[in-house]
Design goal:
Length: 442
């Protein structure tokens, strides 16, 4: 943060009559947290941070060591367009520290910053462009859809079309550029794609995006959800993450002489994603419901392989277009939009860097429809499968030295404890399918 950034914020707050500034940060599970300060406290907050009780935040501190400090990042300052103009409200993302000023190991934003620093030490800048899908429902109590549209359908003007339009315009007011918006495959399912940017800015943008989608839906009397699989028999919602590394010479993933136009760096990066994806699945797909989406037959990539045009592969490499060398990238298709973006980007980048450091060789491209391959054919081709449940993902994560290294002990151990508790609670439930299938016959 520069003095220019701080001066700009202080001047803007004064000139626009901003009375409240919300300090945003996330817990380990990716839920957005916030507290507000008045405009008169802002200059002090820049210098000293603002203290808060971290003992009630998921994955933060124990009650006996609860004091935390939030330092605002002035470069993330934005006025919230859905709040009144008079006595306006702005927000800034924060970095969380201990009272002595040292970065807090349980802060997901810091976990991503550590990985970005690791990439920077190798001369790389990490860029990402996620595609988040979500559903609109009539309310939060059920799955009553607003339309029966399908992929790219142009349905008659209805509330969903206006919701997407209003959401895009609001995101742009918040300084978040949008590339595409369209109807997705399932009824009442939609997608708004953000223009790629550096990893930290994008993680902040994803948190803002999710809140914005929900705020606009709420203002229009409906409910938006990023739940990975809310409707049985329909496609779930994914967060396909396009990613690349840039160095001093440009896109480090591009090689004009390679048959795929992929550099050795890109190939090892992809190999790292594939090798470590079972281990980081607990981060990119962190909920019991995430694994209702990761099943064959619904376009969710469960097979650990890569391809260019084949969208049944977990990692896709978009086809090269002459003159578009800077757009060379890889797309990881397995994450879902309910992940914590800071941790998700951290484990993806960490896995890719490990692939580079280990000099991993890329397996052959998958050119057939993997969804139609038998188990024997998959085994013969050396194609592995992602964890099929939260329980399997926990086992892969627990055995992973790489995830402990990437996330740090604090976050790693908290995630493990929290997800074990969630899995134990889920396994003890009796659901409607069981009652319908067994009650009358057993």
């Amino acid at each position: 943060m520069t003095e220019f950034d701080k001066d700009y914020v202080l001047k803007t707050v004064e000139e626009r009559g901003i009375r409240f500034i919300r300090f945003w940060f996330t817990d380990v599970l990716g839920f957005l947290k916030s507290f507000a300060i008045s405009d008169t406290e802002l200059e002090t907050a820049f210098e000293e941070g603002m203290g808060f009780d971290g003992s009630s935040i998921e994955g933060f501190t124990r009650i006996q060591e609860s004091d935390m400090v939030a330092f605002p990042d002035a470069s993330t300052f934005q006025v919230l367009p859905w709040r009144p103009d008079e006595g306006g409200v702005a927000r800034m993302f924060c970095d969380v520290t201990s009272p002595d000023g040292t970065p807090f190991d349980g802060d997901p934003r810091y976990a991503l910053k550590r990985m970005l620093a690791r990439a920077s030490a190798r001369g790389y800048t990490y860029y990402v462009g996620p595609e988040l899908e979500y559903f609109y429902f009539a309310d939060s109590c059920g799955c009553e859809v607003l339309d029966q549209g399908g992929y790219f359908d142009l349905t008659p003007l209805d509330v969903a079309s206006d919701l997407r339009r209003e959401t895009v315009l609001t995101l742009e007011k918040l300084g978040i550029p949008v590339e595409y918006s369209h109807h997705e495959v399932a009824p009442s399912q939609h997608e708004i794609d953000l223009r790629y940017t550096d990893g930290l800015s994008m993680a902040d943008n994803v948190m803002t995006y999710r809140l914005t989608v929900k705020e606009i839906a709420y203002q229009n009397g409906v409910y938006a959800t990023f739940m990975p699989k809310p409707i049985h028999g329909e496609n779930g919602s994914g967060m396909h993450v396009h990613q690349s590394l840039f160095d001093a010479d440009g896109n480090a993933f591009f090689d004009a002489d390679d048959e795929y136009h992929l550099s050795a760096v890109a190939k090892s990066y992809i190999a790292g994603l594939l090798k470590y994806s079972p281990e980081f699945c607990l981060i990119t797909n962190q909920w019991v419901n995430s694994y209702k989406r990761l099943v064959p037959g619904y376009e969710a990539p469960v097979y650990i392989t890569w391809a260019r045009q084949n969208r049944s592969a977990q990692v896709r490499v978009p086809m090269y277009k002459p003159g578009k060398e800077q757009a060379t990238r890889v797309e990881l298709r397995s994450p879902d939009p309910a992940a914590n973006p800071y941790l998700a980007f951290a484990v993806m980048l960490g896995a890719g860097l490990k692939g580079i450091d280990e000099g991993l060789e890329l397996t052959p491209e998958a050119t057939n429809n993997i969804f139609e391959m038998s188990d024997a054919e998959l085994e013969d081709a050396g194609i592995g499968v992602l964890p099929g449940s939260l329980g399997e993902a926990i086992k892969a994560f627990e055995a992973s030295d790489a995830m402990r290294e990437i996330l740090g002990d604090h976050i790693y151990e908290y995630v493990l404890a929290n997800k074990n508790a969630e899995w134990a609670e889920y396994r003890s439930q009796v659901n409607a399918w069981e009652l319908e299938s067994y009650l009358s016959v057993l």
